[in-house]
Every structure is written in C-alpha cells, then in structure tokens.
Design a protein that fits this description.
Elements (H helix, E strand, L loop, with lengths): L1 E5 L2 E5 L3 E9 L12 E5 L5 E5 L2 E2 L12 E5 L14 E4 L9
Antiparallel strand pairs: 1-8, 2-3, 3-7, 4-5, 4-8, 6-7
Length: about 100
C-alpha cells in the first residue's frame, strides 16, 4: 500500500458526500489516480475502512498554495464523522501511471 496523504480537513457536501483535504498530491512521481481507485482509510484510533474515490474535487484558491493537491470525494455511505482529522489515506492498488 502507498500512503497518499493524511486528512487535515474534511467537510460534507449535501447531496454529494464527504470531501477529504488536502487530497491527492500532484508532485512528480505521484500516482495518477482517477475516480474509482481503491483506497484504505486508517483512523488515528486504528480503524480501517476500504473504499474508493467517488470523484475528484476542484477547489479554487485565490492565492496559489505552496503545495498543490486534489481533494477527493468519498461514497455517500462514508460521512465526515467517520473520517476524523489525522486519518491516513492509502492506495490499495497502485497504478503504473505517475504524474510527470
């Protein structure tokens, strides 16, 4: 499994689901993931949940952040309360593609 990021914030979008931030890194060599990629959520308490990326969210910042990442949307059955800050997100199946 490949560690993707640690949840710094999460929020619920009514009618869509829970969004995790900062999200997928866009650094050179990072996996190029798409919706449907299988992930594992490991909470600070040690609970693990296997799920998938439902969608990639586009969030606009007024000032370009120091590190660019893409927040991810989880399936509707996983809510904000299920994913506390500090939860680690891992890729279950690593794809061959990486960002260049």
């Amino acid at each position: 499994m490949l560690h993707l990021f640690t949840v710094a914030d999460r929020f619920q979008i009514e009618g869509r689901g829970c969004v995790l931030a900062p999200g997928l890194p866009i650094d050179a060599g990072s996996p190029n993931l798409r919706k449907g990629a299988r992930i594992r959520l490991r909470t600070p308490a040690g609970t693990e949940t296997d799920t998938f990326i439902k969608d990639l969210e586009m969030i606009s910042y007024r000032h370009r952040p120091e590190k660019i990442s893409i927040p991810i949307l989880l399936p509707k059955d996983i809510t904000k309360k299920d994913v506390p800050v500090g939860t680690e997100v891992f890729l279950i199946e690593e794809k061959d593609e990486t960002t260049s």
